[in-house]
């Protein structure tokens, strides 16, 4: 599996959490926001997104409700209190990871290019 795919797969939950922290969203909206906000880098296909959403819901991190918008029925996902706790833990871990990577790469010629 290419590194880019590994990075995306390893960050799936955190990316979903970060969007749902703002407001509840339905699946397609989540995928479009990830793609838009990342300039296309985080293009999440249904085969990765929906299993992650279901797993997160089963873990008690997300709640769902059905809404009719523009005549269409959509399943909206929202963070639960437990989901907010997990998001906080993951955010701390990602901050540590990014900081360690930056420290490691600081001054590296390949990184400066």
Q: Count of DSSP E strands? A: 3
CATH architecture: Orthogonal Bundle
Radius of gyration (Å): 16 Å
Name the CATH superfamily assignment: Winged helix-like DNA-binding domain superfamily/Winged helix DNA-binding domain
Please identify the structural class as seen in this structure: alpha+beta
Major sheet: 3 strands, antiparallel
Number of helices: 6
Question: What global shape is seen?
Answer: globular
Overall pLDDT: 91
Distance between the termini: 25 Å
- Uncertain runs are none
List SSEs in N-to-C order.
Answer: HHEHHEEHH
Find the CATH topology. Answer: Arc Repressor Mutant, subunit A
Could you name the CATH class?
Mainly Alpha
Report the portion of residues in β strands: 15-25%
Amount of helix: 55-70%
Describe, in plain words, how this protein is organized in 3D.
The chain has six helices and three strands; from the N terminus they run ααβααββαα. It is of the alpha+beta class and 113 residues long. The protein has a single domain (3-112), classed as Orthogonal Bundle (Arc Repressor Mutant, subunit A), CATH 1.10.10.10. It has a three-stranded antiparallel sheet.
SSE blueprint and pairings:
Layout: H1 3-10, H2 12-20, E1 25-26, H3 27-37, H4 46-58, E2 62-69, E3 72-79, H5 81-105, H6 109-112
Antiparallel strand pairs: 1-3, 2-3
């Amino acid at each position: 599996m290419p590194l880019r795919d590994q990075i995306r797969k390893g960050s799936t939950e955190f990316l979903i959490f970060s969007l749902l922290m703002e407001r509840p969203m339905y699946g397609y909206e989540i995928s479009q926001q990830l793609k838009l906000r990342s300039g296309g880098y985080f293009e999440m296909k249904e085969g990765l997104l929906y299993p992650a959403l279901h797993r997160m819901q089963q873990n008690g991190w997300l709640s769902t409700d059905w809404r009719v918008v523009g005549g269409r029925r959509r399943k909206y996902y929202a963070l639960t209190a437990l989901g907010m706790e997990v998001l906080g833990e993951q955010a701390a871990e990602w901050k540590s990871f990014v900081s360690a990577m930056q420290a490691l790469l600081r001054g590296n010629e390949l990184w400066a290019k």
